[in-house]
Amino acid sequence: MIKISGHTGFIGQHLLEMLGESAIGINLRESDEVLIGSDDALVHLAGKAHDVKKVLAAEEYFAVNTALTKKLFDQFLASEGSVFVFMSSIKSLEGIDVKASAYSQSKYMAEQYILSKPIPDGKRVYILRPVMVHGPGNKGNLNLLFGVVKKGFPWPLAAFENQRSFVSVENLCFVIKELIANKDIPSGTYEVADSEAFSTNELVRMAGDALGKKVVFWRLPKGLVRFGAAVGSILGLPLNTERLEKLTENALVDNGPLLKVLGKSLPLAARAGFEKTFKSFVHHD
Predict the structure, then answer these.
(1) Are 168 and 215 in contact (CB under 8 A)?
(2) % of the chain surpassing 90 pLDDT
(3) First and final CA of the chain: distance in angstroms?
(4) Is 3.90.25 the CATH classification of the domain at 132-164+194-252+264-285?
C-alpha cells in the first residue's frame, strides 16, 4: 500500500487520483505515528509551503518541514516499509546559506537528515526537488498572472526576458509512481522539471490563448517596475518585490538525470501541461 501524507493538498489530491486504490491518505493532524506495514511505500508531501505574505514564524517551518520529516523518516527506517519519498523543493538548494528563507533552510535540513542515515537493504529512499508545480486546482503566482490577462489589463512586465523551468502536477505524480514501482531506480536526490522551459511572457501569451484574448504587452522601464513593486511590498499590493522576482527570474533545471533513471519520457509535454492548467482556470471561473 502507498501511504500519502498531505493527501488533501494540491499535489496530494492529484497523486491519490493517479494511484487509485493502491494508495490511501494519512492524517498527521490526528497522529504523527504512522503504521507502515511490510512493503508499504510512504510518500511524505505534508509541509509548510513558502509564505509569500510572510505571516508564518520561522519555527513553524522547522517544526513541520524539518522535525516532522525526521520523525516520519525514523519510523520508516524502523519499519518493514520499502520506499520513502520526501517532497522537498528546488528552493532547498538555497538552504545552505544562513541568509536563506526559513522555508529553504527547513527543507535543506530535512534533506540533510535523510542523507545522513544509512539506507537498510531492501529499502529505497528518494528526495524530490520539484520546480514550480502547476496544474488544475493550482493556486499562487500563476493565478495572479491569469487574473491580469482575464481582466484585459496590458502585461506590464514585457521588458523582462527570462527562462524558467516548471513541472506539471501530472508529470510530478507520474515520477512518484514510477519511482515506487521500479525497484531498479537507485535511491537518490532528483530534481524534477518538465523538458521545456518558458518565459513569463510566453505564459501570458498562453493564458491569453486559453481565454481567447489578445494580450497587449507593455515594455515599461525595469527600474520603474521595480520601484512599483517596492511600493507594493510596503502597501501589501498584489505586485511586490518578491512576486516580481518570482515572475521574472531565470530558473532553469535539467531533468536529464531524472529521465535517465526513469528510462522513459514524461507523459505530458510542457506546453500541453500549461494549456491544461490555463483551461482549468477558465472553466473554474
Answers:
(1) no
(2) 79
(3) 36
(4) yes
Question: What are 98-150's pLDDT values in tens digits?
Answer: 888 899 999 999 999 999 999 999 999 999 999 999 999 887 778 888 988 99
pLDDT tens figures, 171-184? 999 999 999 999 99
Residue among 114, 118, 263 nearest 184 (CA): 263
> Which helix (H) or strand (E) is 210 found in, with range?
helix 200-211
Q: Which residues share a beta bridge with 125?
A: 84
**Residue type (1 letter), 75:** Q
Give the predicted TM-score (pTM) of the model. Answer: 0.92
DSSP type of residue 214: P
**1-130: CATH, from 3.10.620.30, 1.10.10.10, 3.10.20.600, 3.40.50.720:** 3.40.50.720
**What distance in Å separates the CA atoms of residue 208 and residue 243, rounded to the nearest whole number?**
20
Q: What is the location of CATH 3.40.50.720 in the chain?
A: 1-130
